[in-house]
Design a protein that fits this description.
Its EC number is 1.6.5.9. Belongs to the NADH dehydrogenase family. The protein is an alpha/beta fold and 423 residues long. It is built from 11 helices and 25 strands. The chain has a 6-stranded mixed β-sheet, with helices on one face. The chain has a 4-stranded parallel β-sheet with strand order 13-12-11-17. Strands 6-7-8 form a 3-stranded antiparallel β-sheet. The structure holds flavin-adenine dinucleotide.
Length: 423
């Protein structure tokens, strides 16, 4: 009998955990991803804000499995699934036959039907997004330095972030610190300390998924750093000139989108029911309805807990789901009963505010301030892959602490100052 073939689509947190947990299970694994790297998204905002380099938070998937002969890595984009033939279709025509299929293709930001805003208000999901945002931030300061029109200079020195979830809050905190601590000595014609960082949120408070007292602390800490909070304001329009909200126009040449979520099209590939964000509404064993050999895990799965609350779209949830799907596959291969239905265990919610404060919500225990920042920092270094990355990230943070200098301030990808903030 030929070996059971598990095709895993997506080398993110869910897909990697599954492949790791199937080590020694006697299966053949093909891990497909449209990118050649696994990305540690929780620190992506630090690449966008010039603290870290791209290679500090991403690793070639092929390298991660170099010592696993049972794992074959394929760089390719899945575009469809033929469930009758049990085949995954890749762009370019290649197909892969599976015995078990695991879809761990994640999610991306959503513009609530206004995808035309994306070019002026990029979101943060990939390394390319991070370097695009980094380029726009740095170019805005460069252009402001040579701008003679005061109104244009002010708009160049105004950075608007839409969405006050963890990513929006983290971006705002670091941009304001960059402008106030790192850049002032380097510019001659502008005072970068006068930079405006505006955080727009439709809801009544920042970090709405955190307990109210932590969210209030974060709002106050952001205000003290110098971030302008515009809560209760809906975005009506994003243009190259700025953001129009329900409360007026913010002239701003750099806009970053940190709101909304849209799952990968896994539900469409399978033609199964999805929730409003496009996530596959999975069975209790994380399989797609009607397809017991197809698992959907992580950000692209909609799982409702016993409490009625959805499992959050965060890395630990994706890892737990990947681990669970591996358990089910192992049990099936051993002809053992399936494990009990998937149960999510929340380990806590974390967010940072600038480079020296954070909030942590462990449920009964809530922490804030520098102690929370240290716990956040240690946890993130622990979860990085490999000693080199751990040292590189810890050293970058220490260097900023000692010198105030962000070392990854490179404008890359496009050579001229003709594009972005001005067009
Ligand atoms: C900016 C940002 C900050 C975040 N911060 C935190 C945080 O602080 N803490 C936390 O716990 N969570 C955080 N998250 C959420 C966390 O990163 C996700 O919940 C987690 O990555 C989900 O894992 P996943 O395996 O479902 O998907 P992902 O990790 O997104 O992996 C999906 C993989 O699938 C691949 N893929 C997608 N479509 C295809 C296709 N058609 N064909 C082939 N490959 C495909 C992608 O290239 C990717 O490698 C953050 C997310 C973002 C974007």
């Amino acid at each position: 009998m030929s070996e059971h073939h598990v095709v895993v689509v997506g080398g993110g947190f869910g897909g990697l955990q599954l492949a790791n947990d199937l080590k020694g299970a006697g299966v053949r694994i093909t891990l497909v991803d449209r990118r050649n790297h696994h990305l540690f998204q929780p620190l992506l905002y630090q690449v966008a804000t010039t603290i870290l380099s791209t290679s500090d938070i991403a690793w070639p998937i092929r390298h991660l499995y170099s010592d696993r002969p049972d794992v074959t890595t394929v760089l390719g984009e899945v575009v469809g699934i033929d469930t009758a033939a049990r085949e995954v279709a890749l762009r370019g025509g290649m197909t892969l036959r599976y015995d078990s299929l695991v879809l761990a293709t994640g999610a991306t930001h959503a513009y609530f039907g206004r995808d035309d805003w994306e070019p002026v208000a990029p979101g943060l999901k990939t390394l390319e997004d991070a370097t695009t945002i980094r380029r726009r931030i740095l170019l805005a300061f460069e252009r402001a330095e040579i701008e003679t029109d005061p109104a244009m200079r002010d708009a160049l020195l105004t950075f608007t972030i839409v969405g006050a979830g963890p990513t929006g809050v983290e971006l705002a905190g670091i941009i304001v610190e960059l402008a106030r601590n790192t850049l002032p000595r380097e510019f001659r014609n502008i005072d970068t300390r006068k930079t405006r960082v505006v955080l727009v949120e439709a809801g009544p408070r920042v970090l709405p998924t955190f307990a109210e007292e932590l969210s209030a602390y974060a709002g106050k800490a952001l205000g003290e750093l110098g971030v302008e909070l515009h809560t209760g304001e809906r975005v009506l329009e994003c243009t190259p000139a700025g953001v129009e909200t329900s409360n007026g126009v913010i002239p701003s040449r750099t806009i970053v989108w940190a709101a909304g979520i849209q799952a990968s099209p896994a539900a469409k590939w399978l033609d199964v029911p999805a929730d409003r964000a496009g996530r596959v509404i999975v069975e209790k064993d994380l399989t797609a309805p009607g397809f017991p050999d197809v698992f959907v895990v992580g950000d692209t799965a909609s799982v409702i807990q016993e409490s009625g609350a959805p499992v959050p779209g965060i890395a630990p949830a994706a890892k737990q789901q990947g681990a669970y799907a591996a358990k089910v596959i192992r049990a099936r291969l051993a002809a053992k009963p399936s494990p009990a239905p998937f149960r999510y265990r929340h380990q806590g919610s974390l967010a940072t505010i600038g480079q020296s404060a954070a909030i942590i919500d462990f449920g009964r225990i809530k922490l804030k301030g520098w102690i929370a920042w240290w716990i956040w920092g240690i946890a993130h270094i622990y979860f990085l892959i490999g000693t080199r990355s751990r040292f590189a990230v810890a050293w970058s943070w220490l260097w900023i602490y000692l010198s105030g200098q962000h070392s990854a301030r490179l404008i890359t990808q496009k050579e001229t100052m003709r594009d972005d903030n001005r067009t």
